[in-house]
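User: hey, got a sec? need GNAT family N-acetyltransferase folded
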Amino acid sequence: MVNLQGEHIRLRALEPTDLDFLYELENNTDLWEISGTTTPYSKHVLKLYLDNAHRDIYDVKQLRLCIVKENKVVGLIDLFDFDPQNKRVGVGIVVLDDKERNKGIGTEAVSLLTDYVFQVLGLRQLYANVLEENAASLYLFKKLGFVEVGIKKDWIFSNGMFKNEILLQKIKA
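Assistant: Yep! Here you go:
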């Protein structure tokens, strides 16, 4: 049985009480580059999103979970582009507070989610798209057995320039 509870964090579904955290995260322009966001979100729109967050991954092709440390939401981890036919899904993670980064939260969260993807969803492949300049995320995924398989040249246009994105994969042994 897969447990979404780790030693220091746990992963849980979004709740209506996460509205303020989601509002802060989605409207943080520093994160728009990695999320593909181009406009701010209202609390009303985010509340509608939360009202539908219970929908099944097979229906909406994505799953967003809160990363909780000591009963406080510190980040989100997402599964996206869920493809059960080809047994793969993408993963993205963000820890909002800089002070909470580089403390093992990301490692634990990705490890828990990897177990969930392989054991519960029965998928064969997990992949991540990471900006070439994001050394911390590249280190995290490689440390957890993800392999760099390609470079998407000039993939992201941000702040007036194009940036490369690295594609990493982890294939179930």
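Quick note: The two ends are 19 Å apart (CA to CA). Let me know if you need anything else on GNAT family N-acetyltransferase.
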